[in-house]
Design brief:
The chain has 236 residues and is of the alpha+beta class. 34% of the residues lie in helices and 18% in strands.
């Protein structure tokens, strides 16, 4: 779906005139567009569905590295030493790394990483400035603006068409709250639809990758957290 289609579907659902909502000068359209872009970002944060790989040059004995603000979330941090034998690093809490750094220095390649305040922390520190860190990450999308813009595009989020209805539900949720829409219980019906859609998207992508999944009972039990991918969510 492009922006124009999202606008028609969402504004009709909450009773706003589509012609008014599609006017770039209207307040309703400005709100709609902000909710749509917010929905794309939140969907990507929760599903980590679209990923890219970045490489970071390291410095000998330096354990802290700043992360670009355009990274929404990351996972699968891999360390490649000068020797060429790459390994995945284990994620631990930042306080654990700080505690280990108080001990005597260890002469080995990094084994652990943590994230704190837009910074990746490594322990032990790199042994060579020729070492490299590789990060599988979720990029922050370019904001949708033109009516032809589509979140399926890589720069706009890379979200497959089959999940656009989940983003639509997010926008309807926010619009329903704003309009005090009684038919949707002030947007709460759409909020439930969005949350269920996020879970279903996670499961569908894991099955697409060949993973077998047990039954999922939405909204019950304590195992729903296992559906979230590993890694770090950097927030919006």
């Amino acid at each position: 779906m492009n922006v124009a289609t999202f606008a028609l579907r969402v504004t009709h659902a909450i009773g706003i005139d589509a012609a008014t909502a599609n006017s770039a000068t209207s307040q309703e359209y400005t709100l709609f567009l902000s909710w749509l872009n917010e929905g794309v970002v939140q969907f990507l944060r929760k599903t980590k569905l679209y990923k890219r790989t970045a490489s970071m040059a390291l410095t000998v004995d330096e354990g802290d590295y700043a992360i670009d603000s355009d990274i929404l979330a990351f996972e699968d941090v891999t360390y490649t030493p000068e020797s060429g034998q790459a390994r995945s690093l284990t994620q631990i809490d930042s306080w654990q790394i700080r505690d280990m750094r108080l001990l005597a220095a260890v002469s080995t390649d990094p084994l652990y990483y943590s994230y704190e305040g837009q910074t990746i922390m490594l322990y032990p520190t790199p042994l060579s400035s020729s070492d490299t860190l590789h990060i599988l990450y979720v990029p922050r999308p370019t904001a949708l603006a033109a009516t032809a813009d589509n979140p399926s595009g890589g720069s706009f989020g890379g979200i497959p068409e089959e999940y656009h209805s989940v983003i639509e539900a997010y926008v309807k949720w926010k619009a329903g709250e704003h309009a005090n829409d009684k038919a949707s219980q002030n947007g709460q019906m759409f909020k439930a639809e969005y949350e269920a859609g996020v879970v279903e998207a996670r499961v569908a992508e894991q099955r697409k990758a060949g993973m077998r999944m047990g039954s999922v009972n939405i909204g019950r039990g304590s195992n729903w957290r296992s559906l979230a991918g590993p890694g770090v969510d950097l927030g919006a």
